[in-house]
Backbone:
């Protein structure tokens, strides 16, 4: 996989591609085998990203670290080929960076990549987008599969079921050792408080029906990142552009909390 081809497959904004190409021309660093190993080893991801950032130096819009990680993504494609994983899975998985770059521009009016810390999941073939959802293989004290919801996910029931069924086939074909592993979701989308804020036919509430909630953390503040991007706390300044924002703003200003919840997928 060549970098220029990857840029086009990921549909990166032209201005970002221009900056990436400029960095490549000016680039004066190299990543050694040890640093690559850290970037591809879960327990060492954080250390690897921090080392890479120090090596890069000043990088106000994240273009430099984006180039370095996309360059590694080209190498990751070789692993996809070895496993015979379809290129469309590779592209949709790596497009997470395009999505976040465009989301940042929509909120802040500039293109900036601030999610370098998340990229090792994709580089090390531990997270894949299959249909409308993303699935992360997590092996710590025990194996679990974490379900993530991209910001552009269409959560109609038919899309959720299609994604799950396609992932089950994907897992069986390419990662059979993960077939019987429990699947979890930890998200504000599972918060029970949303039942007070959304209509009964809401896609989000429909998504909740796929899970059994095990724990709730009302102190978690991730709703600001996803529902009120650019804001960090409840205030009269929160936008009211959508019905969810209007209802949630009122809810928060009343002193109530939405938080987040963790649940396992019903089999």
Residues:
């Amino acid at each position: 996989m060549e970098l220029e081809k990857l840029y086009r497959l990921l549909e990166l904004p032209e201005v970002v591609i221009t900056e990436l190409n400029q960095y490549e021309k000016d680039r004066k660093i190299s990543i050694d085998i040890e640093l690559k190993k850290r970037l591809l080893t879960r327990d060492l991801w954080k250390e690897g990203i921090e080392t890479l950032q120090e090596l890069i130096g000043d990088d106000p819009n994240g273009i430099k670290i984006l180039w370095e990680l996309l360059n590694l993504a080209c190498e990751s494609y070789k692993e996809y080929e070895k496993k015979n994983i379809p290129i469309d899975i590779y592209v949709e998985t790596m497009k997470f960076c395009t999505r976040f770059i465009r989301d940042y521009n929509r909120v802040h009016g500039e293109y900036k990549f601030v999610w370098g810390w998340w990229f090792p999941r994709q580089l090390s073939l531990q997270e894949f987008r299959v249909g409308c959802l993303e699935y992360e293989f997590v092996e710590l004290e025990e194996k679990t599969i974490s379900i993530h919801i991209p910001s552009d996910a269409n959560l109609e029931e038919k899309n959720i079921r299609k994604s799950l069924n396609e992932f089950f086939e994907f897992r069986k074909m390419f990662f059979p050792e993960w077939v019987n592993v429990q699947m979890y979701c930890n998200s504000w989308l599972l918060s029970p408080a949303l039942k007070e804020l959304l209509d009964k036919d809401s896609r989000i509430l429909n998504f909740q029906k796929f899970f059994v909630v095990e724990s709730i953390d009302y102190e978690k503040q991730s709703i600001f990142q996803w529902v009120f991007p650019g804001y960090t706390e409840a205030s009269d300044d929160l936008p009211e552009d959508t019905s969810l924002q209007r209802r949630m703003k009122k809810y928060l200003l009343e002193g109530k909390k939405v938080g987040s919840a963790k649940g396992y997928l019903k089999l």
